[in-house]
Each structure stands twice: as C-alpha cells, then as structure tokens.
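Researcher: Please translate sequence to structure tokens.
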Amino acid sequence: MDFYYLPGSAPCRAVQMTAAAVGVELNLKLTNLMAGEHLKPEFIKLNPQHCVPTLVDNGFSLWESRAIMIFLVDAYGKDDKLYPKEPEKRAVVNQRLYFDMGTLYQRFGDYYYPQIFEGVPANAENYKKIGEALGFLDIFLNNQNFIAGGDSLTLADLSVLASLTTFEVAGYDFSAYKNVQSWYEMIQKIAPRADNNRSWAEAARPLFDKIK
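Model: Translation complete:
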C-alpha cells in the first residue's frame, strides 16, 4: 500500500510505527509540501484535503493519522491488543487519541508552528497551555504503565510517543512531568520502530532550530 508522508511529521511516524506493529509494509512516497507536491491534481484526487499522512490501500484512500492507525489494526491486526474491542477499554484508547490530536499535539503546534511558518513572535499563553496539556498526561499516567492504562501498549502510546518525540526535537523539556518522562523512557524500549521514530523525527530539527 502507498503511504504519502514526511519523515519529520509526528502523525506520519505514528502510522509507520502502527504499520510495523501489525506487520504491514508501506510503500513510502515522500511528499514535499514546500514544493507543493500535495497540491498536484493526482494527489488532490486521492485526498481533497491535500494533507499528509495519506494511505492508499488497494484503491481505498484514507487520511488523518489516527483514523489510518485504527484502520490498519482493524484490517491487518492479529489481535486487538493495540485497539481493544471491549467497549470501555476502546473508549479510553479513543479518548487518549483525541486528547493527543486536539490537546497535546494541537497545543504544541499552536505555539511552535506560527513561529516557524508565519514568522510571528512566541506566544507566552500558548506556551503555558503546552504545560497544562502535559500536566493532564501526567495524571493519566499516574500508577499506569501505558497511556490508556491496561497491561499492554495501544495505539494511544504510539500516537503520543510520536508527538513527544517531536517535543524533544523541538527542545521542549518535559522532564518535570515525572510520569510522562518515565513512560517516555520505557515506551521507546518496547514500541515497534521506536528507534526509527527517533531518527525520522530529526528531519524536523532544522525547522525548530530557526526559532531557538
């Protein structure tokens, strides 16, 4: 299956780790957004929102990283550990995925990306909101080994791992959040392709270096 991506993108890396977890080989198609490759008619035909990541599996096109991750597990997973079928367990995984998308990674982007792509000054209030989001995550992890609780890694761990690796590359220090820091150190030892996730994330470092 074809996977349109950027290596520095946290959402793209989360999908790549999920694919590795379910044993799916992705045909990587590097998509240069700065060169407008995502605006070509052939890409817009696949994805009218012209964003990455985008997955094309036997003619079926899907975008939004967390939707892609769920699809990969539903279609190719050997069991339901990554995305439990039991309603309450699945609901917690969903909540954490939405938290990552709408709070944790969103607040990171709200602070950093206007500086990078629009040249606007740093916003102290937006920076404060990142800390608040990490505080929530720290509470989620209180007496828990995994983001959604339970005794095994789920899609929530892979999504948040990708996000926090970008935090690290950007130079954001989250070591004060002890539960988050402990989880981050542990999860990198067991998540599939965690080493690649870290090396791929480095592709984004020049963007963050511009605003340091």
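Researcher: Any highlights?
Model: The longest strand covers residues 2-5.
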